[in-house]
Amino acid sequence: MKDFVVGMGEALFDCLPEGKKIGGAPANFAYHVSQFGFQSCVVSAVGNDEDGDEIMRIFNQRGLNTQIERVPFPTGTVQVTLDEKGIPSYEIKQKVAWDNIPFTDKLHNLALNTRAVCFGSLAQRSAVSHDTIVKFLDAMPDDPDTLKIFDINLRQRFYTPDLLEESMSRCNVLKINDEELELVSRLFGFHSISQENKCWILLSKYNLKMLILTCGTDGSYVFTPGKVSFQPTPKVIVADTVGAGDSFTGSFTAAILAGKPVEEAHKLAVEVSAFVCTQSGAMPVLPDELKERLA
User: Fold this and answer.
1) Using CA atoms, how far apart are residues 125 and 100, in angstroms rounded to an integer?
2) Which domains does the chain have, with CATH numbers?
């Protein structure tokens, strides 16, 4: 087996105003990593139903490696509505397949051969998938170059302070947006300080390699011990923002794994996510000029 880059968690359909599209942060992340030539893999579960069949067919068509179990629960769906600025809101169905991802011998072997994984809080709302994600993280190689990326991705009320604390303690890269940073700082009692100092506290407390902070149209930051990278958000005509954050994380991860400096990886991630915002849906094909940046 080769070294894999894994997106782990929910696999589902986003039911958008214009129709049904494949979604879920792990698949979006793995798809964008794969566009830069890395061996990615989606880990999730789908049901024994037509939606599950269609998800597997789409992943096959896109050339994605998968370890997706078929389980006796319905395939996940999310009802997505967009406001006048193209910003999505979500109604996430519960008691679905990706709440029940089993930890198998095959998944353990994948963990042993994984160089980077991206996981979030949403797929940990259930005990089964939470335990599987924890076991996967624990089984990964104990290597200083291995990346365990917690894309906090808070949705509705599908998280607890204990879950966030545990996940931040197990990751070495934290991805968070400005609204999530404010919520987390309130939960943990340090909300009265500046945004920058909140980031430094999290970086230090959890001994992170990097903290990525996205602030919508106000730009984004990457904090590393002793240094900050800032990139403004490009002005583009927005079709929708679904999957833009996942494309940022995927392209940033690919660039770091390719040996690029943080500032260069950050610039690529910003440009990729801006392009994704100009397209409908979460998995557009990137232009060659972006993909060739890591060649």
Assistant:
1) 10
2) 4-294 (3.40.1190.20)
